[in-house]
Specification:
It is built from 19 helices and 22 strands. By secondary structure, it is an alpha/beta fold. Belongs to the SMC family.
């Protein structure tokens, strides 16, 4: 068995798919520091299950995924696949080749595969147990592993020796057995609890069952007698009701007659009211019109005042504009004089500039001819230089191509030889794989037959479990719902308790008084001392309004002290209600005359301490509560709007007729808070009792499910093992078929490549000859160009000397020209500035004159307007006199209508008295009808509640032969009462509990037997572990003594078990004595001595129990050259039984390698693996060293 292939994709510095093929013997992986060669070791450790990302030199899982570069984007996942050749069947699996794969995503998920079949990390660990392969074994050894062996931590050291001595698999099985033991004990404890509980329930239930059966017999006899009794009573009530209804009809006819007269008078009153309303409207309109005219007159006075003020302002503006015009004219004259002087200066400066310009042109013409000659010669020189550079580039490129072509020729020849060997090897492998496929197919058929039988058994048990789980999930859901309700009630309870505690909803001043416990005689706010049913809360809150915030005090002094406290601290205003002053003010119910239905007086619908009675009746005693708005309006009309009326929805009809309604923000739920707190407490208690019952039922169901799941797990384990075998067989078949296909593809690929290499070699030789001829031609042309450049440089120097003399004269003239031009430009700017100022002043002058004319025109216009306004004011004053006369006539008409209405109202009151008398008689009859109906309904309700019979069903059961004997009835009831509480459900419950009792008895017995079996298994495992550890530790120790001397060239080394009475948990002591030195503590050894000691132990382990492959990650780095030589020789000897892959930069290690891989980083942060032949490997070794 050996490591055949490692595939990396997206892992750390390997973004693209990278295949590394390994052979038996020693393979060295080399490369410069930071090239990513240790990432290969990390990849092997990671794919074998390393969970600690810090051990892989990272912080979190996403650190092993390629993070991207400036040119290549980051990847979302990484994948590593490790292929092991298992032809010798050292691994307990039927595949001859095993691929372990791990994939991880940047989001944090990770998954494992075995031969491309998804699996658990546990499956991989179990497969590799006792082979030395794994993250805790000795197949991957880096500098950190060396430190672990020599560290003072006995746990880390012990893991290596457990794996080496072959007890890891036993320790793993023992841990599994101990976990099973723990789980089985927990199951037994749970089942025993349930068993005892059921046993305690069974005996009481048996007694209850017998009592329930007797109860049902007596109850049936009682039903027969009592039903007949109820039917007789109902028939008697129906006869009385018929007679009463006749009397009711007579009274209703009288009511209709009185009501008709009443309505006639009410219509007359309404007509008078409408006339009064009309005359009131007219009076109001007249008053409103008079007030409107007065308002207009006042407005006229104001307007006249404003117009007079405007005339004053216009006269002021005329004077100001006249002064401004004089000043502007003077400024324009001054600017014109200055402009004439500046124009003369500008003309002088212009003449001087023209003289200098002529001189500059003369010098510039001479310099232009010389400059053209210089440029022409310089351009010729530069062209020749560019040609030389181009020739050198062409020559260098040709030389590089020639070197590349020579290397390609050598590579093609070497590759052709390698392909011939590979073709022969592939053809042999294809034949072997086809034989394997035939063998796997017969194994697969046997396993499939066994799996089918197990699946049928699994299906039967699983159906039962699913049924129980549905019930279990429902109860779990009910429990969750109950818990959510409790949390919700608790949350609301806390909110309302906190609101009550902090006086939420009260104004600032009220809060401060209630919080101040030093104020004496404060009993609380009115909203705090009353309560009512939820039905009336909205009506009461609307009725009370701001009274809710009033504070009740003992007396006036208490109120006075509280007011002083508020004033002193500037805390706002509060109304106080002293108990000793406020008197009751309650409506007399007998005085209420209305046919509308009302609920009651508000003060009677609240609960309060008796000492607050006067205050409550004062505030609420004159408020009537009515159910609906329609009834409220009717009541208000009938009582002539004398009382305050409030509906259950909070609408208010105020005395006098005004209405208040709509929506309003509640004032902190002051009135309802106490009720809500008690309701939530009650709800929490009820829900908690329900939750307790549900949780008990859930425990019982869990026991049933667990027992069946144990059986399912057993079948599952068998299925899993057989499925695993089929998966392995299928994977082997697929793998073998894939290999045959891959081998065939590779064969074709190698043959095509060989043909292509031959054609490529012929083309490369022709290209080499052509390049050599081109290089000779380039060298000759380069020499000619160089001679011509020297001649041109001499001519260029002569022309440059004459050019410099003329250039100096040209610069002097330019300086003089610049000075004169600066003066000229400044003069032009001044002229431009003054011209703009003159233009601006003319614009201002024109605007000012226009404003002066406008002010004069406005003065005349305002004077005309004053005359018009004065005339209108006088007309309005005359209108007021006429309207006042009209108002007097309207008031006289109103007084006449009022007298007529009072006479009709007196007659209406007489009719009201007759109406009330008839109504009271009718009310008594209706009450009697209601009592008879209520009695009948009570008997019907008893039939439904006690016997679940409707009236029709009960009448159908009436039996004339049954004697209704009250004594017999009482006797039967006494017998039922003597039975006490009867649980009817106990009949069914007893049967169910008895069945569960028998079931759990069997389960308890099975679990007790399982615990005995597990204890026996653990004991056997411990004995095997001790035996294996003793045998292998002695062998490793003997090997260590020999290996230590070989690697150190002398000295002594020994391994000792510290606690021989407990060899499975004991620390292991390492004794080391380098040659020529005394026995030393490990911590006192040098770095090289420590490393060589640890390497000696690891080599001793491999000698005793060879691992299929071993990866060494620069463990020999601290060794000197002499020790490296001994290390390499020993490595060569061990490679006969173990495949070694060494990540190294030491020459001695490379020299003993059979194969070498180089890891480079041609592109930043991206590693690339290249294989080298011996010649290239030697060259790379020399470069690195």
């Amino acid at each position: 068995m050996y490591l055949k292939r490692l595939e990396l994709k997206g892992f750390k510095s390997f973004p693209t798919k990278t295949d590394v093929l390994f052979n038996e013997g020693i393979t060295a992986i080399v490369g410069p520091n930071g090239s990513g060669k240790s990432n290969i070791s990390d990849a092997v450790r990671w794919v074998l299950g390393e969970q600690s990302i810090k051990s892989l030199r990272g912080d979190k899982l996403e650190d092993v995924v390629f993070a991207g570069t400036d040119t290549k984007k980051a990847m979302n996942y990484c994948e590593v696949a490790l292929t092991i050749d298992n032809s010798d069947k050292k691994l307990d699996i039927e595949y001859s080749e095993i691929t372990i794969k791990r994939r991880a995503y940047r989001s944090g998920e990770s998954e494992f595969f075995l031969n491309n079949k998804s699996c658990r990390l546990k499956d991989i660990k179990e497969l590799l147990l006792d082979t030395g392969i794994g993250k805790d074994g000795y197949s991957i050894i880096e500098q950190g592993k060396v430190d672990e062996i020599l560290s003072n931590n006995p746990v880390n050291r012990r893991k290596v020796f457990d794996e080496a001595c072959g007890i890891s698999k036993y320790r793993y099985k023992k841990q599994e057995a101990e976990r099973n033991l723990k789980n089985t004990k927990e199951n037994l404890n749970r089942i025993e609890d349930i068993y005892v509980e059921i046993e305690n329930q069974l005996k009481p239930l048996e007694t209850q069952q017998k009592k329930a059966i007797k109860y049902l017999e007596i109850k049936e006899e009682l039903k027969k007698i009592e039903v007949n009794s109820y039917i007789s009573e109902i028939e008697e009530l129906e006869a009385q009701a018929k007679e009463t209804l006749n009397h009711d009809k007579v009274l209703k006819d009288q009511m209709v007659s009185v009501k008709s007269k009443k309505e006639t008078l009410e219509k007359s009153i309404t007509d008078c009211d409408e006339e009064l309303e009309e005359i009131d409207v007219k009076i109001n309109k007249t008053i409103e019109y008079i007030n409107t005219i007065k308002g207009v007159i006042n407005k006229k006075y104001s307007e006249l005042s404003v117009l007079n003020e405007k005339i004053k302002n216009c006269n002021s503006d005329i004077q100001r504009y006249t002064n401004e015009i004089s000043y502007i004219n003077k400024k324009i004259n001054d600017d014109n004089l200055e402009l004439e002087k500046l124009n003369e200066s500008k003309n002088n400066a212009f003449r001087n500039l023209k003289d200098i310009e002529n001189k500059i042109d003369e010098v510039e013409l001479k310099n232009k001819d010389k400059k053209e000659s210089i440029n022409k010669v310089s351009q010729t020189i530069e062209a020749l230089k560019d040609e030389i550079i181009n020739l050198l580039d062409v020559k260098q490129n040709s030389a590089n191509k020639l070197s590349t072509l020579n290397a390609n020729i050598e590579n093609i020849e070497n590759r052709t030889k390698t392909i011939d060997v590979d073709i022969e090897h592939i053809q042999k492998n294809i034949c072997n794989k086809k034989d394997e496929i035939s063998k796997f197919n017969s194994q697969k058929q046997e396993k499939l037959s066994l799996i089918e039988n197990l699946k049928q058994e699994f299906e039967d048990i699983n159906k039962k479990v699913n049924s129980l789980k549905i019930e279990y999930d429902k109860i779990s859901s009910d429990i969750q719902g109950s818990k959510l309700k409790i949390n919700e009630y608790n949350s609301k309870l806390n909110i309302y308790t906190d609101m009550e505690k902090h006086y939420e909803g009260f104004n600032k001043g009220v809060k401060e008084v209630l919080k101040n416990k030093n104020l004496e005689g404060i009993y609380g706010a009115l909203g705090q001392v009353i309560s009512s049913s939820q039905k009336y809360e909205k009506a009461l809150e609307a009725s009370l309004g701001s009274y809710m915030q009033n504070i009740i005090t003992k007396d006036e002094n208490s109120a006075k002290n509280a007011i002083n406290y508020l004033k002193k601290n500037n805390l706002g205003r509060v109304t106080f209600l002293p108990l000793n002053i406020i008197k009751s003010n309650k409506i007399d119910k007998n005085a209420i005359k209305s046919s509308a239905k009302y609920i009651g007086i508000a003060s009677e619908l609240v609960k309060f301490d008796e000492k607050y009675k006067n205050i409550i009746e004062n505030v609420l005693g004159r408020t009537i509560v009515i159910e609906s708005m329609d009834e409220a309006i009717k009541f208000a009309r009938e009582t002539n709007h004398r009382y305050k009326v409030v509906t259950l929805d909070g609408e208010i009809l105020n005395p006098g007729g005004s209405l208040t309604g709509g929506t309003v923000r509640t004032n902190g739920n002051i009135l309802s808070r106490k009720r809500l707190i008690e309701e939530f407490k009650d709800n929490i208690q009820k829900e908690q009792e329900k939750l307790n019952l549900l949780e008990q039922e859930k425990i019982n169901l869990k026991g049933s499910i667990d027992s069946k799941l144990i059986k399912i797990e057993t079948i599952n384990n068998e299925l899993r093992e057989n499925d695993k075998s089929v998966v392995v067989i299928n994977a082997n078949i697929k793998s073998a078929n894939d290999e045959v296909l891959n081998l065939s593809n590779n064969l074709n690929k190698f043959e095509n490549e060989k043909l292509s290499l031959g054609e490529n070699l012929e083309y490369t030789l022709t290209k080499t000859k052509s390049l050599k001829e081109n290089i000779n031609e380039i060298e000759q042309k380069h020499l000619l160009n160089k001679n011509e450049i020297d001649t041109l440089n001499s001519k260029l120097k002569e022309i440059n000397d004459g050019y410099e003399v003329d250039k100096s004269r040209f610069d002097d003239l330019n300086i003089e020209y610049a000075k004169l031009n600066q003066i000229h430009q400044a003069t032009i700017k001044d002229i431009d500035r003054i011209q703009k100022e003159i233009k601006s002043q003319n614009d201002v002058l024109r605007t000012t004159k226009e404003q002066l004319e406008e002010s004069k025109f406005n003065t005349v216009k305002i004077q005309d307007q004053i005359k018009i306004e004065t005339s209108e004011k006088e007309n309005l004053e005359n209108q007021i006199i006429d309207e006042n006369k009209k108002l007097s006539l309207q008031k006289e008409q109103k007084d006449s209508i009022k007298k007529n209405r009072d006479a009709i109202n007196t007659e209406s009151k007489n009719i009201d008295r007759q109406y009330i008398e008839v109504k009271e008689s009718l009310f008594k009859i209706e009450n009697k009808i209601e009592r008879l109906r209520s009695s009948k309904e009570n008997y019907i309700a008893k039939l439904i509640e006690e016997y679940e019979l409707s009236l029709e069903e009960a009448k159908a059961l009436k039996d004339e032969s049954v004697v209704i004997d009250k004594k017999e009835l009482e006797n039967l009831k006494r017998q039922i009462k003597s039975l006490g509480n009867v649980n009817i459900d106990s009949i069914k419950e007893y049967e169910e509990i008895k069945e569960r009792y028998d079931f759990y008895s069997e389960q308890k017995k099975d679990l007790e037997e399982s615990i005995e079996v597990i204890y026996k298994l653990i004991k056997e495992l411990e004995e095997n572990m001790k035996r294996e550890f003793n045998e292998n530790f002695v062998l490793i120790n003997e090997n260590f003594k020999v290996v230590y001397k070989k690697l150190f060239g002398g000295g002594n080394g020994e391994l000792r078990i510290v606690d021989k009475d407990n060899i499975l948990e004991s620390d292991i002591e390492i004794v080391a004595q380098p040659p020529g030195k005394k026995m030393k503590n490990l911590n006192l050894l040098s770095g090289g001595e420590k490393a060589l000691t640890a390497i000696s132990i690891l080599f001793s382990i491999i000698l005793a129990k060879p691992t299929p492959f071993c990866i060494l990650d620069e463990i020999e780095a601290p060794l000197d050259d002499a020790n490296i030589y001994r290390f390499g020789e020993f490595l060569k000897e061990l490679s006969k039984d173990t495949q070694f892959i060494s990540i190294t930069h030491r020459r001695g290690t490379m020299e003993v390698a059979d194969y070498i891989y180089g890891v480079t980083m041609q592109e930043k942060a991206i590693s690339k693996v290249i294989s080298l032949d011996l010649k290239e490997a030697k060259k790379l070794t020399e470069d690195i060293i």
